[in-house]
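Supplementary Methods, section 5.1.

A reviewer requested that the exact input to the structure prediction be made available. We therefore reproduce it here, unchanged from the version used in the analyses.
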Amino acid sequence: QVQLVESGGGLVQAGGSLRLSCVVSGRTFSTLAWFRQAPGKEREFVAGIMWRSGSIYYGAPVKGRFTISRVDGANTMYLQMNSLKPEDTAIYYCNTDPPVNSYWGQGTQVTVSS
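The structure derived from this sequence is encoded token-by-token as follows.
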């Protein structure tokens, strides 16, 4: 059974930092990514990583503030989020890129207060 489990969210003040984790089990993927969905908005791409090469790419709103990484042997992906802004408030999910509907998990809530 394929599972992607997110954790690490929380409440933080603007300018603060959080690190999210995504643990993958059941299979390996060539590309993994972070997505987020804010209240009343569509889900959007945040950052992606090609597992074997480590190549990374970011969505424009987070470039320069967020860093995606992975630990190959642990099947774990991270999202280091710095200089957080209230507009980063959302539920954050991990999935393949492009995403597969059956792989969406519960996500982890990130709330940034002003």
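Residues 10 and 110 are 5 Å apart (CA to CA). These observations are discussed further in the main text.
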